[in-house]
Amino acid sequence: MTQTLFKRLNHGLIALLLISLTLGSGCDMKLPPMPWDPPPDPKAKDAKAGEHGAAEEEAAAEEAAPTEEETGPPDETALLPPAMKTLPYEEVSIPLKDQLIVYGRLYDPSMKPEGTEEETAEASEDEEYKGPKYPLVILLHGLNRDHVVWNDLPALLVKAGYSVYAMDLRGHGKSRITTHKRKVSWRLLKPEQWQKLPKDVGEVIQFFQKGEDYPQIDGKTVALIGEKLGSNVAVYTARDNHDAVKAMVLISPGLDYKGIIPSQAIVDYTNPALLITSQDDAYSYQSTERLYNWLLGPKALQVYKKIGDGSDMLSNRTSLGSQITDWLSQKMPASSASGTPKPAAKPAHDEHSTSPEAAHHEAPKATAAHH
User: Fold this and answer.
1) What does residue 260 show for φ and ψ, rounded to 5 degrees?
2) What would the 3-class secondary structure string for 284-337 be?
3) Which of 26, 87, 129, 255 is the S-S candidate for 287 at Cβ 3.0 to 4.6 Å?
4) Do β-strands 101-107 and 90-95 pair in parallel, antiparallel, or remain unpaired?
5) Is 119 part of a structural domain of the chain?
6) Distance in angstroms (rounded) separating the CA atoms of residues 239 and 187
7) Are 339 and 284 in contact (CB under 8 A)?
8) What sign for the dihedral angle of Cα 258, 260, 261, 262?
């Protein structure tokens, strides 16, 4: 009896010692079977082995699965409308005077989809380009957006005979690095750096005016289409490049985006302008009315009730892109394939477009304001 108790006491001390060693070392150590342990259950052993095998198979599957580095980033074209998925484009990066590299996608009527055998009229180094010239439309996105926000508008413009450059503004999208590999982010831009945005667009216009790499583009006949922040940038760019910028479209502009205040420049712009806004965005709605009133040249205003704001309006109101293209075709006609300009409609000084989804709107009354 005494010997039995003594043996059990020794076994208990040994078990406690092994447990303390296991917990202290943090290792996965199995204890030896004790005399009082029940016999092992074969079914439980098989179940545990099955669980272990399933875990090994799952781990092996994870290792075999391709990583993002192997598959590459998600395809941004998946979210584009059908017309944009097949529209050919060229990635064009333009170095600016302060070493920032502006990125954009160039869509052009002379570009042909992959697989087509038709050749475009190109000029060699010693030969002058003799093909048609296409007016240039530059698309300027809003804050924290990039060149892909335009729904099917680029496709509609190209079909109408325009070259389209959808650019990323300074610090946005792929316009975030300099020639010295220094990174630039819109979140860290200082007030004086925001003021560079209109100058950036001006340098883009000058790049296409040279005609060295893209002789088919008429860089002296330019239209600007901006949304939100891009609208404010467009106003300053249009004022500073008045001879080149023949028309502009402002979608959801504001009286002040990042210190870019269009009222200081819009009074000096006298070429045709189309302003588009929605009552969804009270700030833009009120800003657009005041900016429209300050315009002195041919102008049109379109106010919608509930179709979002900025470039979202192009997705929520699918016919808006066609309306913009039609308006632009009247104010800045594109050339036909033969190079003969299309006849322009006689511009009206004030226009008020209406549609089933548009809010009834009258011209805003004159308001005294300091510029």
Assistant:
1) -90, 105
2) HHHHHHHHHHHCCCCEEEEEECCCCCCCHHHHHCCCHHHHHHHHHHHHCCCECC
3) 255
4) antiparallel
5) no
6) 27
7) no
8) negative
Q: Residue 89: count other Cβ atoms within 10 Å of its Cβ.
A: 18
- Residue 28 falls inside a structural domain: no
Residue 346: pLDDT band (50, 70, 90) is very low
Say which DSSP state 40 is in. Answer: P
- Domain CATH number, residue 330: 3.40.50.1820
Which is nearest to 356 in space by CA: 325, 319, 329? 319
Element spanning 192, H or E: helix 191-194
Per the domain annotation, does 313 fall within a domain? Answer: yes
Which pLDDT tens digit goes with each residue over 41-74? 655 555 445 445 544 544 444 444 444 333 444 4
Q: What residues make up the domain containing 136?
A: 83-113+131-352
Residue 145 domain-assigned (yes or no): yes
In 3D, which of 299, 298, 162 has the Cα closest to residue 219? Answer: 162
- State the chain's mean pLDDT as an integer: 79
Query: What is the number of domains present in the chain?
Result: 1
Residue 12, token pair as written in the block: 């208990």
291 closest CA partner among 248, 320, 244: 248
Burial 105-134 (b: 16+ CB within 10 A, else e): bbbbbbbeeeeeeeeeeeeeeeeeeeebbb
Identity of the amino acid at 220? K
**Tokens 């102008």 label which residue?**
299
